[in-house]
Amino acid sequence: MLMANDIHVSTILFSLFILPSFFLHSTDGAATYNVLSYGAKSDGATDNSAAFLKAWSAVCAQSDAAVTMYVPSGSFLLHPTMFTGPCKSKSTVVQIDGNLVASSDYNLYEAAGYWLKFKNVQGLTFEGGQLDAKGSALWECKAQKTNCPDGARSLVFNDAKDIKLKGFTSLNSELFNIVIDTSSNVQVDGLNIQSAATSPNTDGIHVEQSSGVTITNTYIKTGDDCISIGQGTQNLWIEKVTCGPGHGISIGSLGKSANEAGVQNVTVKNVAFSGTTNGLRIKSWERSSNGFAKQILFDGATMDNVKNPIIIDQHYCPHNEGCPTENSGVKISNVVYKNINGTSATQVAVDFSCSASAPCQGISMANVQLTYKGQPAKSSCEHAFGSATGTMVPSSCLQSSSSSNRRLMAFVSNN
Ligand SMILES: *[C@@H]1O[C@H](CO)[C@@H](O)[C@H](O)[C@H]1NC(C)=O
Ligand SMILES: *[C@@H]1O[C@H](CO)[C@@H](O)[C@H](O)[C@H]1NC(C)=O
């Protein structure tokens, strides 16, 4: 009797527990497309690109309010795969519980130049899981030989709009991990990006020709820039990003071409750098260009053993090749640095090396405290105009833009 009662009660409890989740699945079910139903194999060895594209076609053709392409746990090998829109639903979700892996045979990715690409998609959330591009074989090739392929970018967005990238890990990219290009309104939150400290050109996130991108709560360890900001970037917001190892957060390289779109309205807030070569950097080619970077705010950064915590470098000319004018035309103006503290790994912690023909204008600094081996660090200025307030260690070397300076600048830029 007692026994029967027990079973009875537990059956009821069981049903109470199971039924709601069953209904959730069935209401969701109509709009959830599991890649396994399209022939995908989670064995880490079968190329799943055709299966994923079949699932994507089904997802994209579905006009429900929300549609999900689901990747369950397991390891899914993918050759270069391009997911093209537009899709019929206004809210498409790619939900990943498993691992997407690339082949370590980098020759498979060379022709495409990407591993995974979303093109012309609007209203997409890409969420969860892990992407492992297996790039170490290519890094080793590049370390030993000169004739290696360039490699592929891991996850690329082109002509995309209203995109959310949430809570996933990107490992071992051959080149840039994540690229946001010609896109708008993209929210990147809670990513974990890791490539080896010695891996070449493995930028964490690259933004270019895009507007309204936000990058928050993200950890980046890599061999190149943690975040690189290319031409035509506007209204970019970066907050709570941790970087290192890597080359820091970099606006640039700008001004490689004579004609290029400028960078405008970039906010970098409450970021942390550890053991990086640079912290907050603006970098331009030593070539003539109509490019610019303006309305830039760096507010809140901690530096732990960073080689160049604050740097503007307008003398970029790798191998001294292809920089005929010897001056950068990129105009850098209206840049604010405030609330920045910590340790520099070199004596010069603030380095403004601006262009003689396009001096930096309107740099303002407030509350900067950077030390080198327990002593105040140093600052260095070249064609850099602006002002400083509050605590300034090292003391500022910015020139105030007095009228005589303006005349001098006019003289310089006329020559
Ligand atoms: C600058 O960008 C931010 C988003 O990062 C946006 O909210 C703000 O409106 C922009 N400001 C201007 C003047 O465009
Ligand atoms: C640096 O700034 C952070 C945030 O404002 C603060 O928590 C920390 O105590 C500061 N460190 C030093 C050494 O001033």
Question: What is the fold's blueprint, element by element?
Answer:
Layout: H1 2-29, E1 32-34, E2 43-47, H2 49-61, E3 67-71, E4 75-77, E5 81-84, E6 92-96, E7 99-101, H3 107-110, E8 114-119, E9 122-127, E10 130-132, H4 136-144, E11 153-158, E12 161-166, E13 169-171, E14 178-181, E15 184-189, E16 192-194, E17 205-208, E18 211-221, E19 227-229, E20 234-243, E21 249-254, E22 263-274, E23 278-285, E24 292-306, E25 308-316, E26 331-344, E27 348-353, E28 360-372, E29 375-376, E30 378-382, E31 384-393, H5 403-414
Parallel strand pairs: 1-3, 2-4, 3-6, 4-7, 5-8, 6-9, 7-10, 8-11, 9-12, 10-13, 11-14, 12-15, 13-16, 14-17, 15-18, 16-18, 17-19, 18-20, 19-21, 20-22, 21-23, 22-24, 23-25, 24-26, 25-27, 26-28, 27-30, 28-31
Antiparallel strand pairs: 28-29
The structure holds 2-acetamido-2-deoxy-beta-D-glucopyranose (NAG) (2 copies).
One 2-acetamido-2-deoxy-beta-D-glucopyranose (NAG) binds next to strand 26.
- Assign an overall shape: elongated
* Helix content estimate: 10-25%
Give a count of the beta strands, DSSP E runs of length 2 or more: 31
Percent strand equals over 45%
What's the rounded overall pLDDT mean? 91
**Which ligands are bound?**
2-acetamido-2-deoxy-beta-D-glucopyranose
